Amino acid sequence: MRERGYTIDSPRGGGKSRLADDAGVHRAAVSRLLNRQSMPDLETMRRLAVALGVPVRDMLIRSGRLAEADLPVGGSPQGNGEADGPRLSPEEAAQRMGVPPELRDTFVRVAKQFLPEGG
Q1: Total structural domains in the chain?
Q2: Where is the HTH cro/C1-type domain (predicted)?
Q3: Tell me, what's the pLDDT at 22?
């Protein structure tokens, strides 16, 4: 919060109120969070994360609510996006999903539209 310019150490600094206003949450929610009196609900956490410019994942980890291993990046603890092995190609996915052979070309063309470049 300090890194984002919110003065939260001084009772008169106004940083808590400004953060609450920027996030669209009640000022008491920010005070309770900072005083470790309560953990905000997910929507409040999301709004604060947006106001602070940080991912909700980081907010949950920094708050001590969850460990980094509880929220792996990309679906795996290693963060490589390979939760159950290498990513399937659209052709492999069609086969494993039982897409009929006469529809596989269409399935593959559509699926490729949703993949990142080079995917």
Answers
A1: 2
A2: 19-59
A3: 93
Please check whether residue 53 lies inside any domain of the structure. yes
Clarify whether residues 28 and 67 are in a common domain.
yes
| Amino acid occupying residue 104 | R
| Residues in contact with 31: Cβ distance below 8 Å, sequence separation at least 6, in sequence order | 16, 37
Residue range 88-95: average pLDDT?
A: 85
pTM of the full structure: 0.55
Give the dihedral sign, CA 78/83/84/88.
negative
| Residue 66 CB neighbour total at 10 angstroms | 13
| Domain that includes residue 48, residue range | 15-72
For residue 23, being part of any structural domain is answered with: yes
Listed residue (113, 108, 103, 79) closest to 91, CA to CA: 108
With bands split at pLDDT 50, 70 and 90, how would you rate the model's confidence at 102? very high
Q: 100 and 94 in contact (C-beta within 8 Å)?
A: no
Give the integer Cα–Cα distance in Å for 97 and 64: 39
79 occurs within a structural domain: no
